[in-house]
Amino acid sequence: MTKTSGLFLRLYSLVMLAYPRLFRQENAQEMIETVGARAKEKGTCNGRFGMMRFWTKELSAAFKTGIRLRFAGTGVPRTSPSQLIAEARYDLRFASRSLMRSPVFTLTAALTIALGIGATTVIFSFVNGILLSPLPYEDPAGLVMLRTFNGSGTSISEPEFLAFRTEARSLESVAAVHNTSLTLQLDEPRRITAMEATHELFPMLGVPPLIGRFFTSEEELPGTARVTVLSHRLWQEMYGGEPGVIGQSLVLDDESFEIVGVMPAGFHFPTPEYALWTPYKIDPTNPDQWNNHYLGGYARLKDGIDLATARAEISAMGDRFVAEHPEYLEKLGFSSDLQLLFETVVGGTRTPLLVLLGAVGFLLLIGCTNVANLLLARGESRKQEIAVRSALGASRSRVVKQLMMESMLLSVFGGCFGLVLAPWGIRTLRTAALNTIPRVDNITLDPRVTIFAVGVTLATGLLFGILPAITGSRSDLQTHLKEGGRTLSGSRRGNFTRRVLVACEVALSVVLVIGAGIMLRSLANLQGTDAGFRTDDVLTMRISLPDGGRDKDPENIAFYEQLVEQVEAMPGATSAGVVGRLPLFQGIGTWSIQVEGQEVATIGEAPFAELQQVTPGYFETMDLQILEGRFLERADDSGTRPVAMVNEAFAHIHWPEGNVPGRRFKLFSSRLPWIEVVGIVKNERHNSLAGSVRPKMYIPHAQATASAYRANTTMNLVVYGDGVERLARPIRTLVNGMRGSVPVYHVQTMEDVKSASMVDRSYPTLLLTVFGLLALFLASIGIYGLVAFQVNQGRHDIGIHMALGAPASSVRRRILGGGLIPVLIGIGAGLAGSAALSRLLTGMLHEVSPIDPPVYLGVPMILVLAAGTASLVPALRATRVDPVEVLRAE
Amino acid sequence: MNAKDPFTLLPLTSLTYHVLLALADQNRHGYGIIKEVEERTNGQMELETGTLYAAMKRMRDDQLIEAVPENERPDGEDSRRRTYRLTPFGKKVLKAESQRLAHLLSIAAQKKVLPA
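The joint structure predicted for all components is written out below.
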């Protein structure tokens, strides 16, 4: 038997499940053998097309007869599949006509559903692209990241890498990487993000190059040829996808690199912004120091080794490093660990994404509740129609099926519209996410998301349709067939159902609005945090001079001094300065130090602090507050004694008793000079507005060669002044005029920098707020609908009351009260739900409790106000009922 | 349904009649029945396996056919597939249906619809 026939035979066995169990027990084996024998016979003479026809007939016959036999003895009417299809077609036509007769209702319901399904699909596309799709490498579950906890960050040092590489038994291979940025010499010099990596990296990831090869182990030895592997995007951009690029050279940071390979489209490591890879040069016989942590470590688990085992080994190795090298590592509180690569990439986004998915699910439920209520109201007005159908012989299940078809059709309209809107929603949110969302290129409307959307559409139709279908198919024939069959105040049971639905949607809205409220409070707290420096009217840009070695330091220092001077002279600029690491934009490394009078013997015991190289204008430009002593000055240059400023945290740790100016410290090295502290500045927040402040030292750029080994060649220019953004282009021209073509990039205002630093919080907050407002809006519509309906149905009662002398105000109060009760119940349930669920937000909050009293008090008031407003119009309408007209109708 | 009176089951469906015909001259298993019908009708009637076995279940319930017991099967026959045969009642029903059809054909011949 051919492979295809074997597959079909397996399928036939599955289809056999349509038959009743007893029949299968008696006949299945024989039937399978018979059909197999026939397939064999047909296969020798009928060709592929004939076989397809054969299997189609066999499979469909088996299915039909199986189903028929199944229902034969059950009392269920034996409806053939063709009858079912005919019924469904009829129901579809009937439902379409019914919906087209009420265009306003249909459009309102479909739009509500479209909103819910569209929003849910968009958020799910994020969940799918980020959390559910595997990383684009071979067997990504085996990839891990090596980390250390060294007081300053999670990087590893060269000796640690070498030890992991040679000694870790649970790891198949280990690679070290160093993220860097290089100047690519094109027509205009461009700063690109690049990665230096050891030769194990690419084989570990398991993605072969599109053309060419990876690095070899020889190419990572110091002094060997400089080679590079390009990303697909850079290759397309620079060489138009030309395959002959292998062997050509390009210039990076004034050095020539030979292109040895190009990676395929879709490959990126670690993120799409990395344009190329070069070998990380390391001499295993003479590695850097144990305490210099600046490398990333990646590894692949050996086959059969689980994460826990590997983790235990790496942790034990870390303890051994400390025991063997206490002079380097002890003070750091050192330990080592490994984590799944997937977790390091997406871990931080999991909670916010799932919170958003839950929130949008609530929004969809609220939409379903609204539509269910609309259908219930519509059902009341169709009671007579249903009664007639029942009288003509339609069974209740038939009527339910017909009503469900209407709901499903509505849901499909809404779902299609939602799917049309979804790509736009995805694009908008992707753009708004900036760089805070990992794997953003993976977020698309792919087949899985589409199937999800279809599933949600069908589930939505069932959800909002089932209750109105069951309620609507209930018919008291006598009452509804009577001429003018009216009920006194609407169906009691229907009213109760609708009130329950309104209470449910109010409860869901309360949860959403409270969630949004707490996030807004958190964001406001964050925005109000004193960064320690000025952010308005400050322009910043980064300049990268080529690194020509220590000898070029005086030239580079002079360049930046002159640049600052000339920028300050520009109209519109009040002050300017340069700084090594821009706060809230770039991370900052720590350096081990010696404090005079508190010296330690080994670097492992030494304290550490963040290091900033600055020109004096930085302090004025960023409006840093001086607390004691003086600012750095132009006179603090390479010819004078080394000085520095420190921040409050630094001063407090090392000289808590005060009297700081005049104290001395130095970077941990016998070669480097003592540095005198001349002033203390107020703490700046560097890594984030929410993070803690670490001790920091500010060293004059002009003295950095002597005090800190090297003067930075890449610096961030900051300029303060009115309308200072206008200076971006003139400054770029100035730089190029002074130094030829050097990259000038990351041009932005400090306000933009500050906003971008908060995007990981502001982004989900914005979305939650939008959902909360939509929920409030939909709930208000639901409340309006309920009260309006009650007024309409209760016209008779209202007329009688007013005829008996009840004042309009008492009628209004009664109507408003009736609408308020389900709202109050919903608010109560919502508050309880919020208290339980808002714990999930804890990790995303800044200086606000998940149970924040102002929010928990304010939101119910907003809901009551919204409910009152929504009920007001129908309440006012109620008082306009003419009792005479009502009584006349009696 | 009165299983003793063959006329209560008439007219038979085309499928039932063909299966009874296939078993008229010898016992057969399911595959054999399908092949015999196909050959006899020159490929005009191709029975699907599922349809056949469902029909055979009904025919067994109506006592028109039965499975041949193990001990009555000839040696060497493949014991994995059941063989079926007509019951005495089944033979009567087959005969009754055949007579009915013959009667119809004779009327058709009288009326010169078919050659005599």
